[in-house]
TrEMBL record:
Record family assignment: Belongs to the cytidylate kinase family. Type 1 subfamily.
Residues that coordinate or bind ATP: G7, P8, A9, A10, S11, G12, K13, G14, T15
Pfam families reported in the protein's UniProt record: Cytidylate_kin
UniProt protein name: Cytidylate kinase
Nucleotide-binding in keyword set: yes
Coiled-coil positions: none
Length: 205
C-alpha cells in the first residue's frame, strides 16, 4: 500500500504522516526535508536560491544533512519554497522519491505533490489542510516553545507567502489530487485528526 499525504505548511500533515507510518508499519519519507537540504546547502554555501543553476548545484547534498536541526528553521523553509520552484531541482529529486514510493512493502510519503506527481498510483491520498490563521497560531506556539520570539503577524505573513509560492509555481504546484480525501484539521485535536486519517485509510485499503 502506498499512502500519499499532501498539504500546506503547518497543516498537521507531518504529524499525521508519522502516526500513519507507525500504525501501518510503512517506511516514511518526509519529502520536504529533501528540498530543505537543498535550501540549507544553498544558504551555507552563499549561493542564490532564486538562480536555478545555483539551486541545482546544491542538490548533491550528503544524506547526513537530513538530520541537521538547521533544516527545521523557518529561514530554511522559506528558502526551500524558492529552490523547489525550479523545474531542474524537482527533476533532480524525482527518481529518489519515486523509488522510495515503489518499494515492495509499500511506503508513506508526505509533501506537496505526492498524490499528483510522485505517486499518482497511491491507494490512499490525503490532502491535509487548515486555515492560514490556525496554521500560523500553531507555528507561532511551536516557535515560542523553542525560545524563538517572533510576532504572530510575521508568522502568518510567512505562511501566506509560502502558500502563494507553493501553489502558484508552474512545476508540480501544491494542488489537491482529484482522488484525494480532504482532511481539515482546523478544529481537530492531534488525536482526533490522526483518528480521522486512520478511518480514511481503513475505508480505502
Ligand atoms: O513540508 P516542508 O515545510 O518541510 O517543505 C518545505 C518546502 O519544500 C515547501 O514549502 C515546498 O516549497 C517544498 N516542497 C515541495 N514539494 C514537496 C515537499 C516540499 O515543493 N513534495
Amino acid at each position: 500500500m502506498i499512502i500519499a499525504v499532501d498539504g500546506p505548511a503547518a497543516s498537521g500533515k507531518g504529524t499525521i504522516a508519522r502516526a500513519l507510518a507507525r500504525q501501518y508499519n510503512l517506511p516514511h519519507l518526509d519529502t520536504g526535508l529533501l528540498y530543505r537540504a537543498v535550501a540549507a546547502t544553498v544558504l551555507r554555501e552563499g549561493l542564490d536560491p532564486s538562480k536555478e543553476a545555483d539551486a541545482v548545484a546544491a542538490c548533491g547534498f550528503d544524506d547526513s544533512l537530513l538530520a541537521d536541526p538547521f533544516l527545521r528553521t523557518d529561514e530554511v523553509g522559506q528558502t526551500a519554497s524558492i529552490v523547489s520552484a525550479h523545474p531542474l531541482v524537482r527533476a533532480a529529486l524525482l527518481a529518489r522519491q519515486k523509488r522510495f514510493a515503489q518499494q515492495p512493502g509499500g511506503a508513506l510519503l508526505d509533501g506537496r505533490d505526492i498524490g499528483t506527481v510522485i505517486a499518482p498510483e497511491a491507494e490512499v491520498k490525503l490532502f491535509v489542510k487548515a486555515t492560514p490563521m490556525i496554521r500560523a497560531q500553531r507555528r507561532h506556539l511551536e516557535l515560542r516553545k523553542n525560545g524563538i520570539n517572533v510576532s504572530l503577524d510575521k508568522v502568518l505573513a510567512d505562511i501566506r507567502a509560502r502558500d502563494e509560492r507553493d501553489s502558484q509555481r508552474s512545476e508540480a504546484p501544491l494542488v489537491q489530487a482529484a482522488d484525494a480525501v480532504t482532511l481539515d484539521t482546523s478544529f481537530l485535536s492531534i488525536d482526533a485528526a490522526v483518528q480521522r486519517a486512520v478511518e480514511i485509510v481503513e475505508k480505502k485499503r
